[in-house]
Amino acid sequence: MRPSFPLTIGLALITAATPIAAQSSDSVALAQLSLMPMPASIHIDSGGRLALTPSFRVAVPRFRDGRLLRAAARAITRLARHTGLGLTHEVTRDSVLGTLVIDVRGPGETVQSVDEDESYTLDVTTFRAVLRAPTVVGALRGLETFQQLVTATGSGFTVPLAHIADRPRFAWRGLLIDVSRHFEPVDVIERNLDAMAAVKLNVLHWHLSDDQGFRVESKRYPKLQELGSNGEYYTQAQVREVVAFARDRGIRVVPEFDMPGHSISWFVGYPSLASSPGPYALPTDFNFTAGAFDPTRESVYRFITRFVGEMAPLFPDHYWHIGGDEVDARAWDSNTAIHRFMRRHKLKDSGALQAYFNRRLSRILTAQHKRVVGWDEILHPDLPHDIVIQSWRGQASLFSAAQDGYSGILSAGYYLDAMSSAGQHYAVDPIPTGSDLDSAHAIHVLGGEACMWGELVTPETIDSRIWPRTAAIAERLWSPSTVVNVNDMYRRLATVNVELADIGVHHLSGPDAMWRLIAQTDQIAALRALQHVVEPVSLGQRMHTRRPTLLTPLVEPGDIVTPDARGGRALSALLDTLFHDPSRAPGLRDSLAAMFAQWQALAPTIAALTARAPLLTDADSAAGALATAGGIGADALTYLGGGQPASSAWTSDRLAQLDSLTAPRGLLKLAIIPQLRRLVLAAGGAASATGQ
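Above: the chain sequence. Below: its structure as tokens.
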């Protein structure tokens, strides 16, 4: 459901029946819609609206199954919650009685696959909305769109008259959640599945084992979880619950059990699987390890066969992720038996040995009707062409695999722990415009996955690292390739951000709770204000500044603040208007002056908090730097308002100061320095800064 949203500067409402192809970013902007992802095709008629009243009912006249009826019940609950209307949850069969009629031809696939039909159409008239879909999954996608169309007006809640014909651009639209480094309880997984459904993602890639933890109960090999998890793992009943929860929302669950590398947690309980004798212990650091399965022993393959046979019924999806990345050849180099095996089988190097292991693994999985997914490193000409390559290396690697006939999914550019902005993620396309990948090979690019690796997240912070940026990635994977207007994406993302919180994600409430924890007070307004203009340092900076381990409580300000600080974008928008609309300059200068004064006022307030809450030290340092930045901004405004440009000496000095302020303050960095550089240059008379 969408609250009303104010006009963005420079855009206008639709004033007549206007066809909007989502391929045109200009048309999308004119429409002032907050749909996300944008549909493939949409036509809006401004001649009327469908009013939502207490008589609103959902009708499902034709195909009805439990999954569809539960989805309808969830939609009714959300609509009632947001409109305040006392809506009946009874779903009628009579389409004449329905305000929203859901007409589905059939259930779709018994086990949802990458080929599932997710298309739908939605027609809204002044009398009713009709959602048509060939499958239940298509209806689930259309239900999300209908709820996004609901708008608050002065007299109540309405839906614009519309015709939408929608289908995804890519069939594989995923989110990887790593629960091996830091365990995430079932409720965390399920609330993120709800959020995934809201933005039409359809694959949960569940990274269930790595060096630091093995996270699923095995009844056949109980030492896997007993010794490899520190007591934090999912029971088989919980796995079934999550898989069923995901299926109800049209989301596939692809498990990843990493092998032959990233596998220390297997060896703690079963050292005979490893190429070195051990003993093994779960690492508490995130350093690269040389442990790996022994590919030469038949006992290893018997173990894997039985393990896969036990796990396969828990994960009905057709795909199984084997990991396969970053195998350190040292794990095999020191084993003379492995060297003899390689000579006997004419395996020239560790890559060939890993390919041998993967061929054996592929046969084991094929026997369980599973297809192999693995990271770039598994690609080898000896492997069957039904495997899927997940590329963390980039489009070149993805395209090379596609040209060799292998299907692939892109994750390079979608690593959420890299602390990139939503706009940066949004610019990454699995098949960029102008790509030299021809259509015959492009069909092998199945889509992409955002990756939430677990080194730096806990149940308290993971949501704010995933959302709302992943919604931008979801649009890139669903919408036409020509939907590329970054400003409009951010406009719509602001609405989605609130909706995700209403769905149950903790990305807004989580940081507040963490601030209260480390500040030891509920008086956190100053910290909230600081959060708008600072960001966490990059992953590389974090690992080199204060490298965490599993024993590190992730409770510093750099663990709380979120990437893509909105204060930087807001300042950019103010400066754009200031420099391009002289009639508004006086009022905008006043607004900017007030902003800079607030920045300066934060420093003593946060210093007082830090005096009794030492975990705020980085926030205190950042607030001091922000105060300096605010002073520079205020001086620049004085020059701009005075009619005479600042001297070159003043300009050079202030730019040097800003350069010094780009340095991290512990685990924080200011997110407004580029904008202030522009303001200082404008104060010095540089036309390039104003774009004039």
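The chain has three domains: 18-166, 172-478, 509-690.
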